User: Fold this.
Amino acid sequence: GSRAEPAVARVAVGSSLPRSLTEFQSLAELHHPLLRIASARINEAQGDQQQARLWPNPVVGYSGREMGNRGTPGMQGGFIRQRIVTGGKLELASAVAAARVSEVEHLAQADRVRVASGVRVRFYDALVAQRRVELTSRLAGLSTALSSATSKLVEAKQVSPNGLLQSEIAAEQALALKEDAENELSEARRLLGLSVGVTGLDVGELRGNVTADLPDMTWSDCRQLVLAGNPELAAARARLVTARREVIRQKRQVVPDVDLRVGHGYMHPTESDVTSVMVGIGFPIYDRNQGGIARSEAAVVRSRFEIERLEIDLQQRAAMAYREYSNARHQARRYSARILPKAGKSIEWVRRGYSEGQVRYLELLVAQQKYVEVNLSYLLTIRKLRESASVIQSQLLISGLHGHASRLGR
Assistant:
């Protein structure tokens, strides 16, 4: 028979690297091993469904009887035996298997959501890290310039030596922050490449906007989004259908099958052809499949309450996810509506004052440094908002806010 060989994900080397979210998600659809595993599981379940409706194979054999009777070979011949499955048991087994196929298909959809959402989170992580490198590089440049300007003011005896030490400390801190941001970007790019299911994928400069398409959700929106069409919930409901069909199948197992045997031979003592027919049927006196029926009925009860448990669990997790999202959204709005405009007006006023000779260079550098720091804080808030929104949009099918996002408070 045929033997399936595991495929190795490879990405053709082209003239350009993937840069957009859509390109990375398309790569994941093609190469992520989790999706290939899910596809193989569907094929396995479909194979079980196909096998469930097949009839038992007939048995063909040789039969020799009364050998030596009157010094002859006796009766020599052959037979064919067939077990006839009754009570529609094959159709019921196929129906059970079909429900299992439906369950596996829902679980495969959950895996597709996980992969797509994981790529989205990693992409925006890398995009934020890319922007953070730009801002920290600018901050490091401003801090170095501030330290240099302070040094000249010390020489002119306009600033104390302690002021120079403070500016040098700030410059070193800014450089350390820049190095940290560069390391985070390298890590984010590696994780983004791995999120598509390909090892060794080069990830360069990304194209996108960290604030693009951010949702504005109420709790009602969040709850509806998480529960409506949730593939894990759909899989649980499919398991209940499977369990109910299994009860019917187990009860039908009591109906005995018919064992039919037809033989034909040549009777040498009488020099005549003979045909024999045997029909057997079991009597369910002791074994009426009591245990199988009881087990399948218990499975129905368990499956029904598993749906209720999952609905409660999803709503609890949705409530926690929405709290994280709501906090990040309020912070982002405050930055966008109040803090950033004020910081922008402040830097504009200082620059204009400096150009008119009303503001000293040192004050200009401090104001620019503060402006960059505010933008870095805003970027961190956007990262929190982006990740918390992705968790909700993925119907809680990615590693959540309390796992993946554990580094956000740094």
The chain has eight helices and four strands. Residues 89-155 form the longest helix (67 residues). The helical segments are 21-31, 33-52, 89-155, 161-195, 219-227, 231-252, 290-355, 361-393. The beta strands are 59-65, 75-84, 258-267, 272-281.
